[in-house]
Amino acid sequence: MKWMLVIMALGTTPIQTGLIYDTLDACYTAEDRVAAEYVRLYNDWVANNRGRPVPTFITQRLARGICVPHSNQ
Description:
Strand 1 (2-9) and strand 2 form a beta hairpin. This protein has two helices and three strands. The protein is an alpha+beta fold.
């Protein structure tokens, strides 16, 4: 079975990435990279905007990667 990385924007809107992996572990690795990039960008924003309140939409995870089964066909 193949696995596709899907990004859930705002927690509810699935965005297909077209990234397909042969194993679930490989897909999870990609999912971890998405999460790490979000954390990096969040931390950069906070560092560059000290003293200003962090907008709610930034504190919530805007994009989250999940792995879903994908047809081999």
